[in-house]
Amino acid sequence: MHVFVTGGTGTIGSAVVAELLGNGHTVLALARSDGSAQTLERAGAEVLRGDLADLDALRSGAARADGVISLAFGRNYGSADALAQAMAEEGAALDALGRELLGSDRPIVTVSGTPWVPGRASTEADPLPTDGPVGGRGRSVTALLDLAEQGLRSSAVRMPRTVHNEGRGGFAGILVDAARRTGVAGYPGDGTQRWPAVHALDAAALFRLALESAPPGTSWHAVDDEGDAVRDIAAVIGRRLGLPVEQVPQEDFGPFGPIFAMDQPASSAHTREALGWKPRHPRLLEDLENVGA
């Protein structure tokens, strides 16, 4: 399959490109810069220049492909307004990609986060939130999945709060960066709240499986760790960096603060059974032993 990939140089995207190429697919990847283009070419992908706001480039890439994996998201989301703008850009891109593929039986796989369900681990059957800090993404992904009723083979892989590789990435990676910046391995809330996690290479395998075989309109959970206590995550970070571990105000984490303070475990039991997905790389607390190495 010739696959058009957006966001192909990020933590998830670079792993997805390698997973596709390593399993007999070819890749056309969107690149917004010379550096991104060179990285993608070295990986073995064909490059299409453009960015997520260039809807004509997105339609062109989709038209040339047998399937699409959409991973790109704006890089500036340090404030609530910037996050809202990034989600609006993503929504317009998903709509353009989806409508280009309507009625063609060519698959599109997009990305979102696992939902939060009070009192239990979320499952693939739970809807995404359509209000709150990340409601815009929920609305965009839901709209893409709803296009299945019009003949689009759309699916979504929901990512946990931390997608990691060599101790980097996701919410845990933000804690690492904050610890290095402030001199404290801080955590919001009381630290008992749980974050799900997955290794980037395991997530990449699930994107490939969804592309190849997911039924239209379906959602899947790329979750290996159902939920690690944030205090335990911070403790590993503090030990690896030689820093004190302390509770800090959730406001220290900007627009992510309210999300960071929530207990949000997630299950992937249905995904494993239905698609045969089997995570095999290090789990989060083990992978964080690479911090400071």
From TrEMBL:
Q: InterPro entries, alphabetically?
A: Epimerase_deHydtase, NAD(P)-bd_dom_sf, NAD(P)-dependent_oxidoreduct
**GO CC terms, sorted:** cytoplasm
Q: Please give the CDD domains that the UniProt record associates with this protein.
A: SDR_a7
Domain NAD-dependent epimerase/dehydratase, residue spans: 3-214
Q: Which Gene3D superfamilies match?
A: NAD(P)-binding Rossmann-like Domain
According to the record, the residues making up region (Disordered) are 113-134
Which domain of life does this protein belong to?
Bacteria
Any one GO MF annotation of this record: aldehyde dehydrogenase (NAD+) activity
- Designated name of the protein: Putative NAD-dependent epimerase/dehydratase
